[in-house]
Structure formats: C-alpha cells, structure tokens
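Researcher: We plan to redesign the surface later, but first we want a full-length starting point. Tokens attached.
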C-alpha cells in the first residue's frame, strides 16, 4: 500500500521529469496498470506516451454514447494508428432509450446524478472491477479544475489505485508540440453530456 509520504516523495522527485520517465517509474512500482481515455482533446498524447513504454497495456474507453461524429472518427484513427489494446465500456441502457425516458438533464436538475451514474460512473466502475489495476494512467492536468490543481503527478484514487498523470504540468502549447513531433491527431469537437462547464469536475476523479 503506497502512503501519502511515498506520493509526496514521488511528486517532488519527478516534478520535472519527462512523461516517459514518469510512466517508467510507475511501471516499476506495479505492472498491473490501465490507461483510461474518452478521446477528448489531447488524449492522443497520453495514449501514445504510455503505449510507447508498454505496448500491450489495456486501454479503457468509457463511451457515454453521446460523443460527436468527429470524436468517434478521431478515436478510430488513434486506435488504429497506435494499435491500442482497447477495451470498450458503454452504459447498460442505450442512448435512444435514455433520450425517451430521461433525456440529458441540466447539471442543476435532480435527475443529473442518475444520468451521470448511468453514462459515466457505472461503466467506469465496471471497467475497474474487471481489470483491477493497481496503477491508473490518466491525462489530468493542472489548471483544469480546482480539484485537479491539488493532486500532483501522482495521487491515489478513492479506491486506493495509484493515479499517474504524466502530463500534469504541461500546457496546451506543450501538448500541441508533442502531438506535432509525434505526428499525432487532435480533435476539439468533443461533448461531455455530464458537464455544463469546461472546468467542472467529471465525477471520476474527485
């Protein structure tokens, strides 16, 4: 079990490290790892970085069912180009069915919690229960939300999984350069039905 003291040491030691060095260190700590994605903007960077260190790592894609056509096309291209070991998780109810009985509630509506549970939290829990990772790679970055500003490169999820964010201190400009240098695509027409504002926490990380 990794302690908060261990986390603090890792965050201090690797604050200025390259993403590849951070990823390598995480694999040294535990090989039972997954990387999660929703194929939002800049996700190709984390997928490329982790896949470059461990080519067969399980890539967990929790698809809400509400992605744009551009996001689905982008996802297919990245999966193919990087030869990702993808595991797709979707809600148990179809989008068409939910549109009839619930729709997409506003963030202030009483039904919003149920909606988020159905399209995001339950598929994610199912994925984590099936894979049982000890290390979880994600593309969280400082400046995205107040919560994310507080966690650092290494943190521990509420379920005790070591969460690793190799690009934590990187700006959009830094990531633009990374994508260009590695000939990776990006896509900005992305829609998260559980969030009204870009800086609102999605529910998986808080």
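Model: Full-length starting sequence:
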């Amino acid at each position: 079990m990794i302690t908060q003291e261990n986390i603090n040491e890792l965050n201090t030691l690797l604050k200025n490290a390259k993403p590849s060095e951070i990823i390598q260190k995480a694999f040294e700590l535990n090989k039972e790892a997954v990387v999660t994605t929703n194929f939002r903007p800049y996700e190709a960077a984390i997928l490329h970085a982790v896949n470059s260190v461990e080519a067969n790592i399980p890539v967990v894609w929790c698809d809400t069912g509400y992605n744009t056509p551009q996001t689905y096309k982008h996802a297919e291209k990245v999966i193919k180009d990087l030869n990702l070991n993808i595991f797709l998780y979707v809600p148990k109810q179809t989008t068409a069915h939910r549109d009839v009985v619930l729709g997409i509630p506003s963030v202030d509506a009483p039904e919003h919690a149920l909606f988020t549970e159905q399209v995001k939290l339950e598929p994610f829990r199912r994925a984590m229960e099936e894979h049982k990772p000890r290390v979880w790679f994600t593309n969280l970055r400082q400046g995205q939300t107040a919560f994310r500003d507080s966690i650092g490169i290494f943190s521990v999820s509420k379920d005790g999984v070591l969460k690793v964010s190799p690009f934590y201190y990187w700006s959009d400009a830094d990531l633009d350069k990374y994508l260009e240098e590695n000939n990776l695509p990006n896509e900005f027409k992305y829609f998260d039905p559980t969030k009204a504002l870009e800086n609102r926490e999605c529910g998986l990380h808080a």
